[in-house]
Design goal:
3 domains; 8 helices; two-stranded antiparallel sheet; mainly alpha
Amino acid sequence: LKFKWDTVMDLAARALTFLFFLLVIAFLGYCLYIKYIHMKYDHIPGPPRDSNSLFPPQAEKYGPVYRINMFHYVSLCTYCPEATKEILMSPKYLKQKSVYKKLFNLFGQRFLGDGLITARDHERWYKQRRIMDPAFSSLYLRGLMGTFNETAEKLMDKLAELADSKTEANMLNLINCVTLDVITKVFRASLTCCFFS
């Protein structure tokens, strides 16, 4: 019985030693991976890695494109409108699935849906963009300024009325009604939401 117990203890000690060395090797591999990721982006200016400020206005200090290190993730930020336009409109820059998934469905609620802003497939985005471009030309939108202003005035009147009566305003519903009212007027239909009547 003593012989078997010593054999079991010896096997357990060897297994634990092997497991310990395996964990050390895995940890070292993970550290090397993090070092590789950091070295990959070190040529881009940015705050030091131990900085606790996640999204400060660093554009003045580091330029229009800079990196932010969060744990072992590296994020590239741009404050340059031209660079942002190029990144968002070009198919050669990959769109991060996790970010676009959050834009589609935020906090368990449909947020931006599957449209121009959240489309990851460039071909689909380009097709939708071609369809929508005429409706958002600056000349066409300038002609609609009266409609926008009229609806904004109605919203301000409604908000003033709610403020005077010290009633809580449901901004989501109000903005949805404003959007619906503007869209129907743009398409020459007359639909007045309940709060405007």
